[in-house]
Design brief:
Radius of gyration: 28 Å
Oligomer: single chain
CATH topology of one domain: Immunoglobulin-like
Distance between the termini: 65 Å
Largest sheet: 8 strands, mixed
Number of strands: 31
Helix content: 40-55%
Strand content: 15-25%
Strand order of the largest sheet: 5-4-8-2-1-11-14-13
Number of helices: 27
């Protein structure tokens, strides 16, 4: 294990990696890479040469750098007027390093390291890899592309593959002259190195981390536009899809102006390209100046894309563009502070989309998609702090979760609300300006915000980023002398309180909170200890709501009387949509933790009959679906389905299948949500209508609007058999729109016939389904109560292939192992435990522990609520 020492570009005296972290020795540091790579898309190999300017910092006979799945043919060092050739090259697959032994002492000073090497264009969606697609002519084609974050640049070229080892990069690509190439910077020179070949040299990059380098080679076409500041913005696709690039291009150009103004620092590169890759593991990757995406996250077909797709594309583009400042211009010093990249991109991306599309009500959607997602994960004992020590690549990959993205983004939103938007913006400008082209740590951000605000930001935020979890505020109210007295007590919220065998947790948070009474909001108070009291003038309204607009990252529990008082303002829509969303989400989580009866949540849910907001319905639907997963095999299940069906049916009929004049984006999302939910709970009228619409679509492809296709396909499958199954596969084969393929694949997971679900699972690993989409299909089947056990058996039987494809880590692997969290019996808990003991998945080790914790909670919850649910539905 390599030692640690002082690190470059570091604003703190102590380096970030722990003493146990697998890091490179500080004997030499790079300053500039000159890399030439020649990918071969016939035999899926590549060869490379590089010359690296470096500084030797101390006497040594070896240079150690990162390399993985490469063969290093030669290495020569020019230093101190001499030329040294390696005596040996030792590869260590565990530490993912290459040790170059020169056989004699190298003195400190400047040097140049020249190397030649070869590698494989793999099919694992990481490093330098190949992506397969079908051309307009129906031919199988390939392109070569990269995905280096977090630690896979080392699979493309030997390098110092750590975020603080910043350098500049001058890339030259040699490839077949039928192809085009894109990298971080503009091409500055083209040449013909041999028959049928083309060589393109790209401009030297700014100083940046290895994981942000990118290059793509293949049949590519682009559409381009100049932004107001002169930056050339482009969207690249495979041929035939350039007509799907207009929305992304327009969105990117507008957002670039917004980000330049907001940050007060102009985007520093000459161009900004967005590149659609047919096979891509995540949603997108923020390579500086050359952002890569899966097609569904970038391309919008004017005739066939849904409102949901348009929104997702805008969100992902905004997230990645925010990274151009947070992550690329200023980079976390070590992976412990990954959240500095991802949380800010999530929060800032939402802020930017809200600016561009204010009618989308993005902050209500943020609470649904980010805050509540993070609260759910962080309520587990097997969560982790935002700022999490990591020691090796497997641990790094596990940080890409709802804590680093969504919890971090939520506490940033809470902090901005506390400090004020303009003060917060000035603090960000101070932080970015002070660390441009360098690295930073969390404390650097807090210091900048403290300087601008005069508030004790570090003291407040340390309790949110350094310790795991979050509080639940227990609220009690009273009246005295014309004042409403609000007494608040905090304790850590954990789901395993349900188990009843743990002591109260000692953590205390500094909680900024305020209170709404009849729509009038109090000033923000910072709760420093376990108890606080706030007095506000007693209003005419009898209800109070703590945490208005869900700005704070915590849950709230009221007395039974105060819970009941919230029913009327929910039913009348007097409470804001964000607050209506938050109330039911808190109630459900509290019922899962044993702090409220589940029947209280179900009674509260009935107050949402008049709901008209898509995000509120979406979040409530998710919570109700969670209960259905738990009771799917219980005698009470039919009664529960009727309860949910009766809740969604009025909204589904109000929405109808046809858009009404004057409707907008959110109306389309609402219609899709309520029709889908009503049908999924076996509303026979809705499923019959969906089936009829599906049959009509088979005859006339123009008959069904894109916004409804996902719902119609899914419900037709749910009610259908072999004929519908074959029709869906037929539709899947005839479209080349990635978005449509996903809609159809997800419909295949909704059948009720186990034989059809088994066929779907078997096809998930075949050439009929892209590698990037296989896990989506498997998790879709697992989410179907009829397919839960089938999916688990399939994963176990095919673990070798899943491990080969996805074992390196990432979102896909974590989603795959999470399917076992649906189980609710001790027998299954023991089975899952045995399986992962015998088949370890180091890159998803924490996710497996989280899934096992959820299974234990499911078992206990059912034990405690079976009779209560039976009584509720029989009454």
């Amino acid at each position: 294990m390599a030692g640690r020492g002082s690190r470059p570009n570091c604003s703190m005296e102590e380096p970030m990696p722990s003493s146990e972290a697998v890091v490179l020795p500080e004997t030499a540091l790079p300053s500039k890479y000159r890399i030439t790579l020649q990918p071969n898309l016939d035999d899926f190999t590549f060869k490379g040469e590089q010359s690296v300017d470096l500084k030797v910092l101390e006497e040594t006979s070896t240079i150690v750098l990162n390399a993985m799945e490469l063969e290093i043919a030669s290495a020569t060092l020019h230093a101190n007027g001499t030329t040294l050739t390696t005596k040996s090259v030792s590869m260590d697959s565990e530490s993912q390093t290459a040790t170059l032994d020169f056989g004699e002492t190298i003195q400190p000073g400047d040097g140049r390291l020249e190397m030649s090497f070869t590698g494989i264009l793999n099919d694992k969606l990481l490093g330098f890899y190949r992506s397969e697609y079908t051309s307009q002519e129906g031919e199988t084609r390939y392109l070569a592309t990269t995905q280096f974050e977090p630690t896979d640049a080392r699979r493309a070229f030997p390098c110092w593959d750590e975020p603080a080892k910043k350098a500049t990069f001058q890339v030259t690509l040699v490839f077949s002259d039928e192809f085009e190439a894109v990298s971080n910077t503009p091409a500055v020179e083209e040449a013909v190195p041999g028959p049928g070949l083309k060589s393109v040299r790209f401009a030297e990059t700014p100083v940046m981390s290895t994981y942000l380098l990118a290059f793509v080679v293949g049949n590519l076409v682009s559409v381009e536009e100049r932004a107001a500041n002169g930056t050339k913005v482009g969207v690249w696709t495979t041929p035939g899809k350039e007509n799907q690039a207009a929305f992304a291009l327009d969105t990117s150009v507008k957002l670039l102006g917004y980000f330049n103004d907001y940050f007060g620092i102009p985007y520093p590169l000459a161009k900004l390209d967005h590149i659609a890759i047919p096979d891509f593991a995540a949603g997108a990757m923020e390579n500086w100046g050359a952002v890569t995406y899966r097609e569904t996250a970038l391309l919008v077909d004017p005739e066939n894309s849904s409102a949901g797709t348009r929104q997702r594309v805008a969100e992902v583009i905004a997230h990645e563009m925010a990274h151009m400042w947070f992550g690329d211009l200023v980079t976390m010093e070590w992976w412990d502070d990954l959240w500095l990249n991802e949380s800010f991109a999530s929060w800032m991306g939402n802020k930017a989309v809200d600016w561009l599309f204010p009618e989308w009500e993005m902050w209500t959607q943020f609470v649904n998609m980010d805050t509540n997602r993070a609260l759910s994960l962080d309520g587990l004992k097997n969560s982790h702090p935002i700022e999490q020590e990591v020691k090796n690549p497997d641990e790094v990959s596990q940080l890409f979760d709802a804590i680093s993205y969504s919890k971090g983004a939520s506490v940033i939103r809470m902090l901005e609300n506390f400090l004020g938007p303009e003060t917060f913006r000035k603090g960000l400008n101070r932080y970015l300006s002070g660390h441009m082209y360098a690295n930073a740590r969390t404390q650097d951000l807090w210091s900048a915000l403290e300087t601008e605000s005069g508030q004790p930001v570090t003291a407040i935020m340390d309790s949110w980023v350094k310790q795991m979890g979050y509080p639940v505020l227990q609220v009690e109210t009273g009246q005295s002398d014309g004042q409403t007295q609000i007494s608040v007590t905090q304790e850590r919220f954990v789901y395993d309180r349900l188990l009843g065998d743990s002591e109260p947790d000692p953590e205390v948070w500094r909680v900024p909170f305020s209170v709404s009474q009849g729509g009038e909001e109090s000033a923000v108070t910072v709760m420093d200890g376990r108890h606080a009291q706030v007095d506000i003038p007693a209003g005419n309204n009898s209800w109070i709501k703590v945490n208005p607009d869900q700005n704070g990252f915590y849950r709230v529990n009221y007395t039974a009387d105060d819970w009941q008082k919230l029913v009327a303002p929910i039913s009348s829509l007097e409470l804001s949509a964000t607050d209506r969303l938050g109330v039911q989400n808190d109630a459900y989580a509290l019922s899962r933790a044993g702090l409220l009866p589940v029947t209280q949540f179900l009674s509260l849910a009935q107050a949402y009959q008049n709901e008209d907001d898509a995000s509120v319905w979406g979040d409530l639907a998710s919570n109700l679906r969670d209960i259905e997963q738990l009771v799917a095999s219980e005698p009470v299940h039919p009664s529960y389905q009727k309860f949910a069906r009766d809740l969604f049916a009025p909204a589904a009929r109000r929405a109808g299948w046809e858009a009404k004049p004057g409707e907008g984006h959110l109306d389309a999302l609402l219609r899709s949500t309520v029709l889908s939910q009503a049908g999924s709970y076996d509303d026979t009228e809705i499923t019959a209508q969906a089936t009829a619409l599906f049959q009509q679509y088979l005859q006339d492809r123009e008959s069904l609007r894109p916004d409804l296709r996902g719902v119609v396909f899914a419900l037709a499958a749910q009610a259908g058999g072999n004929e519908v199954y074959d029709s869906i596969w037929g539709l899947q084969g005839e479209t080349d729109l990635a978005e449509e393929k996903i809609r159809l694949l997800m419909a295949l997971t909704r059948f009720q016939d186990p034989a059809l679900l088994t066929k779907t699972l078997e096809d998930s690993l075949s050439s009929k389904v892209r590698s990037q989409d296989s896990i989506t299909v498997v998790t879709g089947v697992a989410g179907n109560p009829k397919g839960r056990d089938l999916a688990w058996e399939f994963v176990k039987s095919n673990w070798g292939e899943f491990d080969r494809r996805y074992g390196g880590g990432g979102f896909g692997l974590m989603r795959l192992v999470s399917i076992c969290s649906y189980f609710n019996s001790q027998e299954k808990a023991d089975e899952v435990d045995r399986f992962f003991s015998e088949h370890p998945a180091p890159a998803a080790e924490r996710t497996i522990r989280q899934a096992m914790e959820r299974v234990r909670l499911n078992i206990k919850w059912l034990e405690q609520n079976r009779s209560e649910l039976t009584n509720f539905f029989s009454g």
